[in-house]
Amino acid sequence: MLIEPAAVDEAMEELSASCFYDKRHQMIFEAMSSLVLEHTPIDIITVSAKLKEKGTLEDVGGPVYLAGLSQKVGAAAHMEYYIKILKQKTIQRDLITASHEILKKSYDDSVKVDDLIDIAQTRVYNAIQNNVKKEVQDIGSIINTAMEDIQERQGQTGYNGVPSGFPSIDRVTQGWQKSDLIILAARPSVGKTAFSLNLARNAAVDHHMPVAFFSLEMSAIQLAKRLMTSESGLSADKIKGGAKLENYEWEQLEMKLRNLIKAPLYIDDTPGIPVMEFRTKAKTLVKNKGVRLIVVDYLQLMQGPAELRGMREQEVAAISRTLKATAKELDVPIIALSQLSRNAVQRGGGSGKPVLSDLRESGSIEQDADMVIFIHRPDAIGLSENPEDKEVTQIIIAKHRNGETGEIQMLFKSEQVRFVEMDEALAAQAMSIPSSMNNASQDAEGGYDPFSGYAPFQGGFDNKGF
Description:
By secondary structure, the protein is α/β, with parallel strands linked by helices. The chain contains 18 helices and nine strands. The chain folds into three domains: 6-129, DNAb Helicase, Chain A, CATH 1.10.860; 161-424, 3-Layer(aba) Sandwich (Rossmann fold); 430-465, no CATH class.
């Protein structure tokens, strides 16, 4: 760098001051970095002047030492090889330092084991990641790869991502796309967990795609009971044990759960899981189980880097960035649930629909997400007392980096803990009409009434919908 201007840019792109072991060399590199930022050419004279300005010229050995360095250089053509040596030694030093810190912490009884695991994973990961840079790709090679992907998909039918199981959503998203971070947000008790479980169940049971579900709020048993309720069609009260199951209901339960039992659905219910532990587990699941979709319930309950605890906004921002980086690295979609602030409910006028600025505790969630989906149920948050609005749910796609946004009408069947499409609800209601007609025709006393026993549809439509 002192004798060859062409070497400066290459070194600055790949190296940092910490790549040098000798403190003198670190100070010299920092002086060179300052000169580059000032657009000043680098040579022995300018570097000497910058070191003198910083008050560190004598610390590095003065102009004589710089002159000596310039005389010990090999061929500038070998610059790439010299950089490789420096980076390898840096990783070795960082791993040695991390190992010493982990060893010291391991002997300290005051450090909790969970914190120790988090520290160990973070230090080792940082030692490696900080020194690994992805190569720049030329547009020609990228287009060739894109063309191959398009060609491969021409022979495929259906959606190219992981299906949600809801046609209205899949028409917009084409399935959950690889490397996307999807934020699913709503106010408490609106149905975030129920909806995410529906998504996980649909991918694992109907499409046999391995799914990992990280539950920080509910235990694995509670999640299993919710899945059993929606799968069997029995009331939640009976599954929870509040009411006894009849013999035929036991048979119904066993029959309906056959596909769910065999589904490749993996649940981790570690409370307050540190984000680096999540990253490690996610990597293992993708590698060993072939997981195609990851769900996190929910983002604000994860633990960020230890050094950011107490600075909530920065901690949540770090968690959000790590989730996006993990989705990109593992090339799988990650659906992360998130809380909304009270702003949507308190906002005057309109129907209280949430907006992107309502995402709680950090604006970086909105920035990092490829897609933001809101679940809006006016009756659940006290914004509607109209009985016709009961169960009506709006799935609002508020941000979609690679597609359109919009609103999708659905119904939430709370007794079955599942969401259904409007078309599906109408079809189910229509199916009940023939049986009602048959029952009515058998009633000789009251004559024939085609709508006898028919319960009006409560989804917000009138009879014109039929």
